[in-house]
Write a structure and sequence with these properties.
Immunoglobulin-like; 390 residues; mainly beta; 6-stranded antiparallel beta sheet; 2 helices; 2 domains; Jelly Rolls; single chain
Length: 390
């Protein structure tokens, strides 16, 4: 059809002229949009959420609580330590008695097989001012440099997790910088429904003060508070990064230790850079285990040699076993033998060890024998724990 009158000046069509949703993917022919047609700034990380995910984006190691090299249950806990699930430390300051276990109670349909359970077996309904109960996990500073802490470009982080308890109310999660006088930031979450798995998401602002050390030491801690006395609850909750004020750490926190009926479960813990939570990052079992073994290894078999004859005069010689540690550990571990520990000579006389050398990759253990003549000797030990936890 012809045009009657003056032809108008052509005007370029802009994005604002197109109603949202009017152009569907079905209306775009395959191959018509090339890479050159998309501006570099048009594709942001937020627009690829759920499509493209960064590998190893979860700062938490063993966030699905699937690894428990030390054992799956520990009763009568009254002091701080690592007890069941790898990388998770229990900190108790006279706050009841607890059984900790790796549980199979998990949120339905989320892909998790294990959780960590805290079960109160002796209550403390009226905690003293300095009492506390915390579940925490620690991190090497060299693994967190990409958070750019201490710079104007410091990254926000988002913590997400599944939690369940019969004890409803307010709980506190805390981030702490151990390299800069324990600067910290705290936020609350609420367990709304008793005995029901709930997913929680908390975003923490980035900290422009205090860079994390670029080394293998304990630079950073995430803590889940479960109870605290007035030393930790009497101030104002520290919801922005600041210098350590003990009274501001657990304000509003319920007392999970106030009844032997109380239980608390957690799984699917993820901390990642950014202001939104992505789906939990599941890792292959072997990968997850090896990451945990950087900090703790347990050898539950028997190690040793069956005996060797020595008949050289006036020669010092070792009765020893070398154990290679794989993967390489964070630091030279503390090696502890909890099972058989035998060093013996040809007359079946027990000998004590005088060689105990350990590095990040090797443990050399045994005895240096001195003298001449002929003797049979051997060494045998079992159930060895190598601990390089933060």
């Amino acid at each position: 059809m012809g045009y009657i009158g003056k032809i108008p000046t052509p005007v370029a069509l802009t994005a604002s002229d197109i109603t949202d949703g009017i152009i569907s993917s079905a209306k775009i022919a395959d191959g018509t949009i090339a890479t050159a047609d998309i501006a570099d700034s048009a594709v942001t990380k937020a627009k690829t959420t759920g499509v493209v995910s960064d590998p190893f984006r979860n700062i938490i190691i063993n966030g699905d609580l699937s690894q428990a090299q030390r054992g799956t249950s520990q009763a009568s806990i009254t002091s701080s330590g690592y007890y069941t699930c790898d990388r998770w430390q229990t900190s108790i300051g006279s706050m009841g008695t607890w059984t900790q276990s790796q549980s199979t109670d998990v949120p339905t349909g989320q892909g998790f097989a294990k959780s960590l359970k805290m079960d109160c077996t002796t209550a403390n309904a009226s905690p003293s001012s300095g009492n506390s109960l915390v579940l925490a996990t620690n991190f090497e500073g060299q693994n967190l440099q990409y958070l750019k802490k201490g710079t104007s470009s410091a990254e926000s982080t988002t913590l997400s997790f599944w939690v369940k308890s019969n004890k409803t109310g307010t709980y506190i999660a805390e981030l702490m910088d151990n390299d800069n006088s324990n600067r910290h930031i705290n936020n609350s979450y609420t367990i709304s429904s008793a005995d029901t798995w709930e997913k929680k998401t908390i975003t923490f602002a980035g900290d422009t003060t205090g860079a994390l050390d670029n080394d293998n030491a304990n630079s950073f801690t995430i803590s889940f508070w479960l109870g605290g006395g007035s030393n930790y609850t009497s101030g104002t909750l520290q919801t922005s990064w600041g210098s350590l004020t003990q009274a501001n750490r657990a304000v509003g926190q319920v007392n999970l230790a106030d009844s032997t009926s109380n239980e608390w479960y957690i799984t699917g813990v993820q901390l990642e850079a950014g202001t939104s939570a992505s789906d939990f990052e599941f890792l292959p079992v072997d990968v997850n285990l090896r990451r945990c073994q950087r900090y703790y290894q347990f050898e539950d078999g028997t190690v040793g040699n069956g005996g060797t004859s020595h008949a050289e005069p006036n020669l010092d010689f070792p009765i020893a076993v070398n154990v290679r540690l794989a993967p390489e550990m964070r630091a030279a571990p503390t090696a502890t033998i909890s099972g058989t520990n035998l060093i013996y000579d040809g007359s079946n006389n027990s000998q004590s060890a005088n060689v105990n050398l350990v590095s990040k990759t090797m443990w050399h253990y045994g005895r240096k024998q001195t003298g001449s003549g002929s003797s049979d000797y051997g060494i045998q030990f079992s159930d060895i724990k190598y601990d390089a936890e933060l």
